[in-house]
Amino acid sequence: MEKRLQKSLLVIFLMSCIGRSSGQTCEGQCGQKLDSCSCHETCASLQNCCLDFKEYCVDASPYSGTIFGGTDFIILNATFAQNSNVTCRFNHEIVTHGYVDIENKGHCISPLLYETGWVPLEISSDNGITYNRLGAWLSVHPGKLDPRFRVTLDNSTKWQYYGTSNTKGSLQMTWNTSHVRAENVNIELWGYSEQGQPYSESWHGEWTYLYSLAKNYPNNGSFSFVPKSAEKPFSDWELGSVRVSSSSHPDGTWNVHAVWTEDHALAWHLEEKFREDSAAWALDKCLKWDELEKELPSFQDEIIDCPCTLDQARADTGRFHTDYGCDIEKGSVCTYHPGSVHCVRAIQASPKYAAGQQCCYDSTGAQVLTADSIGGSTPDRGHDWGSPPYRRPPRIPGASHWIYDVLSFYYCCLWSDNCHYYFKNRPSSDCRTYKSPKAGVVYGDPHYITFDGNRYTFNGMGEYSLLLSAKYGLIIQGRAEPVTMPNGTLARATRLSAVAMKEGDSDVIEVRLIGPEDSLQVLKNQEVLLFSEQNWMDLKGVFVFAPVAQNVTVMFPSGAGVELRGRSGTLATTVLLPEEFWNTTQGLLGTMNDDPKDDFLTSDGQRVPHDQNSPEELFTFGASWAILNDSSLFTYDTKALLDKYFYGPKHHAEFTPVFYVPENPDDPLLTEASELCSGDGSNFCKYDTLVARSLMMGNATRVSFRSHMAMVEALKPVVTCGWLAPPSNGEKEGTRYLEGSVVKLSCNTGYTLKGSKERRCLSNGQWSGETTECVPDRTVGIAVGSVIGGLVLITFLTAIILHSRRLKRK
Ligand SMILES: *[C@@H]1O[C@H](CO)[C@@H](O)[C@H](O)[C@H]1NC(C)=O
Ligand SMILES: *[C@@H]1O[C@H](CO)[C@@H](O)[C@H](O)[C@H]1NC(C)=O
Ligand SMILES: *[C@@H]1O[C@H](CO)[C@@H](O)[C@H](O)[C@H]1NC(C)=O
Ligand SMILES: *[C@@H]1O[C@H](CO)[C@@H](O)[C@H](O)[C@H]1NC(C)=O
Ligand SMILES: *[C@@H]1O[C@H](CO)[C@@H](O)[C@H](O)[C@H]1NC(C)=O
Ligand SMILES: *[C@@H]1O[C@H](CO)[C@@H](O)[C@H](O)[C@H]1NC(C)=O
Ligand SMILES: *[C@@H]1O[C@H](CO)[C@@H](O)[C@H](O)[C@H]1NC(C)=O
Ligand SMILES: *[C@@H]1O[C@H](CO)[C@@H](O)[C@H](O)[C@H]1NC(C)=O
Ligand SMILES: *[C@@H]1O[C@H](CO)[C@@H](O)[C@H](O)[C@H]1NC(C)=O
Ligand SMILES: *[C@@H]1O[C@H](CO)[C@@H](O)[C@H](O)[C@H]1NC(C)=O
Fold it and tell me: What residues does the VWFD domain cover (predicted)?
């Protein structure tokens, strides 16, 4: 209730400002508003009316940087006196010192954090006495950061293996000198460790300055050194990062302008014992880790199962996302998963233990399992991307995953040949419990394909509930506006132009089509989010991924995903829902329960028959799902939007669409439309071309339809029989476990096969035939033995006889 009140206050406040003539200030009002409110989003609203808002609200440039900190950013929209003492406070707790440059611009340095996502930023110009400016800073996972912004480990393989046999010489690192503002730099090693009882209150992780590799070194962009083994206690640090920072700071000063390498296994600095016999050293570590794993709770049961096929994995975008380390789009450099061409990670960490899941696929699209190959999919005790609320293990992005899942891989698999210990604790799950999500879509001048497969058109103008699900508090709303024909006239048909959504008390995300080129704009709680520096953002209760201006993916903790695409002036919107939403959805995308008959339920519970319905009847059904001012998630930040959709009705009953397009044989566009639109779904393509007088629009409809059908096809459930073990003392041929796959089994010499030689995965998920065994062929052995023995005896006797005859002849 309080929230709703706050929001309507905000909207009303915004209203009153928009009415103001430009040039007028509203200082008092804005000052007061800011006092009582600490969130950055207030600034976005103030911006519309208050000339003096700049005094209070600032942007940072760059607005993002590595979780390690050290990024120097400019405080935009404010000038500072030369003698100001600028300090920045992050998260209301970490203070870093800034400075004022010759153009009177204030700068600050981002701090080392243990979390990713936006953190509140407060700025003071009087050395921290008052913090009167607000902003936000985006902390980014090292793996998601543009590599240009970090120190590069030249030949990272050599860094990883240095100290094992056959590694010698020097190691080199390089950096962009303009990222450290100094003539001379210190090059420092920092280490990460975790202490305390796992999964208890005392569990925590920490970065610590260890020692300097060089001091007062020229900032010339490259440094090479011959690594020496460290002595205790430093040699106990196995995960670290090298920092390059100005030599003017005392060693190990926190939060100064600096660049960092990736976090990496510190092979090159480990104790002398490692160099003497790295395999033995590593095995010892591997065994200790194995012991530790026995004591820690098992997390495998609560992580999501892997999709069975690469197609499923790439289509299930609400729950799985490309692993940055093994991406088929980027040439598949799969260092830790040889033989795989693509891996995905479960987006959400598991509920209790915050564990992660990683799923890898080979070039045929089959899942790779650790039971068959070293490149298999492996679960993770710590999710690589961390998980909200971050800050403490195992939720610290990157670092926790390194400690529990990556270092142990080095010990057991890379530095020694004992990978079976690793896979014992991190086995792939075959996909036997995986259930693919269901997809519904809105595209073109809006055509709907419900989760249960009904296809219909609803050309209302207004704002409607595309989907509501009380189970997770998921709300997805769409705004439909008239289509503009190429000649500028408005058509009597609409298209989606904006979609707003949230789940539970997550941030509200709105995606809207702006400008030419079908660019999409993303708003978070009514504030524009720029994806100019980063394409992934960890927000409150939601993740957003925007790799290009036309593509946005929104991912919620329930596993619901929303794919948005700008296409020829339309906003194609696909909603993916996992099975947990079964029979809990309402709205224009219908009830998801595999029953197409109950999809057309009006907001007051009337059922519209799903077959013999007319476009007019469906129009009434659609109109019933108009939203209310109270429930609207949209931002009304222009006069046009306010007039049309805030003060105006949510469903514009005065707008009647064209229900049937006359096909005039003399219309040249009809011929072209008929050529363009063929096959399944062609009626919508044709309708859109003719009603919008645009082949481009028709084509967008066709493309959206096809890509939806391809997605539905990719998500089709597949039957798997699960991993099949080779018989002991035998082998198997074949590592595919889906319906129709055949696995051949054979025995080593000296053994006889009992059971099936060949097993096929049947449609009921069972393997055909019987369990295969290899039994030692003792009985056969005796028989063969006696035959050979007999032959030897005969030969021997013959030889004696011949010999005695020869003797006799002599
Ligand atoms: C802040 O400054 C930047 C760069 O000068 C400008 O692009 C942006 O519009 C300003 N923001 C506001 C809210 O005035
Ligand atoms: C900044 O700090 C210096 C030294 O602490 C002090 O002399 C100066 O007055 C401060 N300037 C401002 C504007 O507070
Ligand atoms: C990296 O170092 C290894 C070991 O010294 C060497 O074999 C390899 O050729 C190097 N690779 C590159 C690209 O320099
Ligand atoms: C170094 O960084 C600066 C500032 O980010 C950039 O303009 C420049 O192109 C970079 N140089 C190289 C060689 O990447
Ligand atoms: C950087 O400075 C070091 C130390 O003076 C020198 O050995 C090295 O060659 C320099 N590197 C470059 C790229 O200038
Ligand atoms: C634009 O095209 C439509 C359909 O052909 C037509 O009805 C309308 O009058 C045209 N508008 C203008 C301004 O020519
Ligand atoms: C954007 O979306 C389109 C259509 O789904 C897809 O073909 C394309 O690969 C996407 N681009 C990126 C960079 O993800
Ligand atoms: C789906 O939900 C509706 C209303 O909540 C209920 O009446 C119906 O029985 C449910 N259907 C199934 C198959 O559970
Ligand atoms: C929304 O609120 C505004 C302002 O109170 C009002 O003028 C408008 O009629 C409301 N719209 C609806 C659909 O209730
Ligand atoms: C339709 O759109 C697709 C994707 O944008 C494009 O590749 C294709 O050439 C277009 N076809 C026509 C006939 O415009």
Answer: 438-633
Testing ligand 4's pocket by substitution, the residue of 151, 174, 175, 176 carrying the most ligand atoms inside 8 A of its CB is 176
Q: Which atom of ligand 7 is the closest one to the Cα of 547?
A: 13
Ligand 2 atom with minimal separation from the 81 CA: 13
Contacts of 374 (CB under 8 A, 6+ apart): 338, 339, 413, 419
Split into its structural domains, the chain has a count of 5
Q: What is the mean pLDDT of residues 85-97?
A: 95
Pairing of strands 152-154, 72-75: unpaired
Strand ranges (E), 485-582: 490-503, 509-514, 519-524, 527-529, 536-539, 542-548, 551-555, 561-567, 570-577
Question: Which residues span the domain enclosing 615?
Answer: 438-640
Task: Using DSSP bridges, classify how beta strands 239-246 and 204-218 pair: parallel, antiparallel or unpaired.
Answer: unpaired
CA–CA gap between residue 49 and residue 34 (Å, rounded):
14
Average pLDDT over residues 378-400: 95
Q: Which residues line ligand 2 (CB under 6 A)?
A: 83-85, 126-127
Q: What is the mean pLDDT of residues 545-555?
A: 97
pTM score, whole prediction: 0.89
Same domain, yes or no: 519 and 604:
yes
Is there a single domain that holds both residue 482 and residue 611? Answer: yes
Kindly state the percentage of the chain with pLDDT values over 90: 79
Do β-strands 64-66 and 133-140 pair in parallel, antiparallel, or remain unpaired? Answer: parallel
Q: Is ligand 1 within 6 A of the CB of residue 77?
A: yes
Locate 739 and state its tokens. Answer: 């319906």
Of the residues 257, 276, 295, the one at which a domain ends: 276
- Closest residue by CA, ligand 7 atom 8: 551
Ligand with minimal distance to 321 CA: 7
Q: Is the CB of 59 under 6 A from ligand 1?
A: yes
Please give the helix or strand (H or E) that residue 97 lies within, else none: strand 94-97
Prior bond of 62 cis (ω within 30°): yes
Q: Which ligand is nearest to the CA of 128?
A: 2
User: Residues 156, 136: one domain?
Assistant: no
pLDDT in tens, 330-350: 887 888 888 999 999 999 999
Please tell me if the CB atom of residue 24 comes closer than 6 angstroms to any atom of ligand 4: no
Q: How many CA atoms lie within 13 A of 42 on its CB side?
A: 21
